[in-house]
Amino acid sequence: MSLSPARREEYEIPLQPLPDLKLERELPLAQRLWQQGWLRKTLILLALALIWELAACYQGNDLLLPSFLQTAKAFCEGIGNGELLEKVAISLSVLVKGYLLGIGLAFLLTTLAVSTQLGRDLLSTLTSMFNPLPAIALLPLSLLWFGLGENSLIFVLVHSVLWALALNTYAGFLGVSETQRMAGRNYGLKGLRFVLFILIPAALPSILAGLKIGWAFAWRTLIAAELVFGASSGKGGLGWYIFQNRNELYTDKVFAGLAAVILIGLLVENLVFATVERVTVKRWGMQR
To answer: What transmembrane ranges does the database entry give (predicted)?
Structure first.
């Protein structure tokens, strides 16, 4: 006697068309445009420029507050004659060196922290000591140790990047689930390979947040440092450009330099970091 269930014949039910079903109409053009993030941000910038222009007209003193149009003219002139571009290039070259060195040291500290108890104690102690210390407060020591030049700027930049990035990275490592850790150990991953292939991909949202915070700290620290002692290896950067024009009462050029600082910050945030997030954590479903 067979205990297998009776075999049923396969059949297909044809579905009838639904002629009375009304499809949703396409969204209006204005609503589709409003959903574009770049357009909304552009409108915000235009509104701020309009407020600036109105405030300058109300102030009526170009020495205290030049108008947006005057600042835009000075900015275009600085770009046209190459002076502003040269200052930006000098500042960015120093910034990249200090930023990359700070990333390397932060990666080393956090790797030690997740590998050994001594590394955890070392990271905890150093961040408690140096993270509250403003980078600009180290300028006198950097001048004493490295002299007036690029090395002094790199020293304060490393300090501004290192601790914020190390703390965010270590917090991200601690947040990696035990399931992912066990999967890595089952594959035989240990030490540096475990960090590279398991911890860093899983903690990437926290790492990217630390990179953005470190970038912001480094950028404003560099401008402040150049405002104080300015010249780097005989050349002045963007902060020095602002300081010199302030002394010569070219307030429109001062605002043009500040506008360059802001524009570089916007470009890095909306092009570099936004692109990295889009192709990594957002594509992987780790971030909305």
So the answer is: 99-118, 130-148, 154-173, 194-217, 223-243, 255-276
